[in-house]
Amino acid sequence: ADTAPVELVLVAARLEGVTHAVIELGFLRPVDARTLAMLERVGHTLAFAVRSSEYKHRLRELLEEAQRQAEELQTQQEELRVTNEELEVQTTALRKTQAQLEQQQAELEQTNDQLVQQSTLLERQNDRLTDSQAEITAKSREVERASQFKSDFLSNMSHELRTPLNSSLILSKLLADNAPGNLTDEQVKCAATIYAAGNDLLALINDILDLSKIEAGKMDVHAAPLSLERVQTTLVRTFEPVARTRGLGLVVAVEASAAGPLETDAQRLEQILKNLVSNALKFTSEGTVTVTVTGTDERLVFAVRDTGIGIAAEHHQTIFEAFQQGDGTTSRRYGGTGLGLSISRELARLLGGEM
After folding, report:
1. Is the pTM of this model over 0.85?
2. Which of 11, 51, 138, 269 would be a feasible disulfide site paired with 23, CB 3.0-4.6 Å?
């Protein structure tokens, strides 16, 4: 390695005009022709060996590539097989779905036909309903007009009847009092009977007038401060003599929690309570009639209890209808028109309460 060569020779490894390698050789002495010829043969052999090596390397690469592609192809074939199986399953499911859709389509067409028929039927029924509503509206207006005419007639007739009736009451009261003393006892008794019957008739006319006002919507209420002590005093003063005459007890009690001032129509409230207490006394032969006022400033409860004949459960609603008095024997035995409770309930509603 420390000695410089005398001559350098480059040997090309060529084969079929292609140089596959170049060898550089250093010689310590001049190279003769025989050595050059040998080196040329060596270059040819080396070129062949290099090309063979390249071919082997390329073949190995091609083999590896072919093997890789074969593996990929096998993998793809497996994936394709799985995909085909999935497609077959999906195809089967699609066929089933298509069959179901065809069945549903047929059912929908049938349902649609039914809906069309029902729609036609509903349109006809709607037309009939519209006609019926128009008839009902017309009849309702006729009923309202008839009710208005009836209420107006009753109101007018009541006013027309009260004037001569009041005159008859005044005259019969004068005769019953017999101040001059020129009537016999029988005549005084007859005058008293006329006076009592006239008062009953006047009460009936007043009830009819109140009912007609309520039905016509002309009953007015005028709210004002009212002391419950006044109501208590009025009831005791009005009905205690009646209760004493019938041998009954009368209790009117106002609880302390309800003793505050009340804002309502005094006349209508007392009318309701007087009607209830009057009924309680009329239908009670022994015992006590009790009126209690309970509650708070926001809501008061007026309760009238008696120890009388009571009301059958099946009549709890009918007694509030006009001209109703429980069963038929009640009016025959106790009298009355059956208007009081009907009027009282409507008055309670006008006052913002209920009965």
Report:
1. no
2. 11
